[in-house]
Amino acid sequence: MRRFFKWLGGFLLVLLVLNVWMFWPVRLAVPLLDASIDLPAAHPPPDMAIYALPTGAMHSQAVFAYRGGTPGEHRDFTMTAYLVRHPRGDLLIDSGFGTQVDAQFARLPMLMQVTSTYSKGTPAARQLAAAGIEPGSLAGVLLTHAHWDHVSGMTDLPGVPAWLPEAEAAFVHGDLPMAAIAHSMPNLALRPYAFADTPYLGYARSFDVWGDGSIVVVPAPGHTSGSVVIFVTLPGARYAFVGDIVWQSEGIERPAERPWISRHLVDLDGDQVRAQIEHLAALHQRFPQIVMVPAHDARPTAAMPRLTP
Ligand SMILES: [Zn+2]
Ligand SMILES: [Zn+2]
């Protein structure tokens, strides 16, 4: 009996140490941003507009979203596509949950299936159609990265190309489990783009989608090999769509990375992700007018117009 309690005591101590190590609210350091970095010029057309298309959510807890999150505090991980209307072409940023989400979820790793639940909204393609926008007329879907919850809605957008960097196209074509759903989508048309050697907000390279500075994409690898940050500048508003570099705004505001268990499940390279968070935190401090939008946090875009009521 005494031996049992000794063993139990040791076991509980190991559990406690593991928990403290994993969830201790460590904040990352915010690096000094180079003084020469300035807010880039942009010339968005006056009729450019952006809309939020909420398509569902996964349900989790703050403790799993960022170090320092409260255990038991419910968090919705929203799945939102954003429509950016521009005279040169309408683009979605990510595609949200599509009509095939049940079948896609059933293919996820078992650990993810048993630790999360989800709820469905109206898929992006249906919201577009209801607003009188033919989904096939989109110029493309600009992906922050090709994880299943960002490409899910592509199944409802046949013929609409997924715009992504070469590195992310290679990720989709590869055999990593986290790319399996994108990899096996029968009609997923990839449109890879290249970055120019044009610095943008401290990133060495960038891709200016329409040539007017209104939508500028920069490589931000780590979460996946070809993850990007998409900067959108409209008349009077600036956004940075940061994908899954952080899941919730606190990741940039504190700043803090995901706890080990979450990093282990979803990040390809945790060190790279940490560096991306630190840079975003530095940008957030210097340029608070840029609204940082984590892919699964609806709070920063709560006031953005919806496409349908
Ligand atoms: Zn992801
Ligand atoms: Zn995601």
TrEMBL record:
**CDD domains, sorted:** metallo-hydrolase-like_MBL-fold
Descriptive protein name:
Metallo-beta-lactamase superfamily protein
* Top-rank lineage group of the source organism: Bacteria
Q: Which InterPro entries match?
A: MBL_superfamily_lactonases, Metallo-B-lactamas, RibonucZ/Hydroxyglut_hydro
Record's keyword terms, sorted: Hydrolase, Metal-binding, Zinc
Molecular function via GO: hydrolase activity; metal ion binding
Metallo-beta-lactamase domain location is 78-296
Q: Name one Pfam family in it.
A: Lactamase_B
- Hydrolase as a keyword of this entry, yes or no, is yes
What family does the entry list?
A: Belongs to the metallo-beta-lactamase superfamily.
